[in-house]
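dude i think i finally got it to work??
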Amino acid sequence: MVATQAVFLLSDATGETAENMLSAALSQFRDRPVVVRRVTNVRSKNQVYEALDQALASQGLVVYTMVNADLARLVYNECDALGLPCIDLLSPLLMRLSEFLGHSPEEMPGLLRGMNEDYFRRIDAVEFTVKHDDGQECRNLHKADIVLAGVSRTSKTPVSIYLAHRGWKVANVPIVYGIDPPVELFEVDPSRVAGLVIEPQRLMELRTARLVNLRQNPRGDYADYEQIEEEIRAAKRLFRRQRWAIIDVSTRAVEETANEILQRLQLV
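look at this
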């Protein structure tokens, strides 16, 4: 029976990326029993010494990822002195990149994980926002970072998606004239709700263009100026009564509206 061998993985961050690389390599040696012992957040000499004492006791292989050049050098020198085999996964890559880019590495542990966490946070935000567009899943409004309310064609969806790509979970709810909004909307913390309004003339133009594109009659109530005026007035009354931030989108680009929302809701 083949004895189990140990690989000690030293990292100045979480070590997840290095462990994934190691697992990929070990998959080519499936008939050899190996235990991986991950030692994370190694950022001092004493931590290096303690980890290598464990590796020495097991006569293990040391695999390490240290963005700090001094610590990486220490691990190498100590392994050499102790007769421990070692592999530096990161330093050769950092050196080649430094030569290629003409710039020294930042030597800040955890940067990659921070980037990954931000990426997945934005993915989660986009998924949430798509699922909660145009009044869908109102039972989850309390889970949103931001809730947008407004009559049809006030840029609720594009603004929501823009904010989602910046990491905010957004839900938007249409305000339909003559129909009560969902009760869940009034249960949301008012400081997280923004009401979007627009000049009636601009809204009439947008709605008319939409109907023409859909090959529908543009002369109905949907694009009627007087009807639109009343819709906007009713929406503003609702927003003021609920003490929601009111954002006029008439002349603003999507990113400008999004920035105004973040400022008014004191999220930046």
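The chain has a mean pLDDT of 89.
im so relieved honestly
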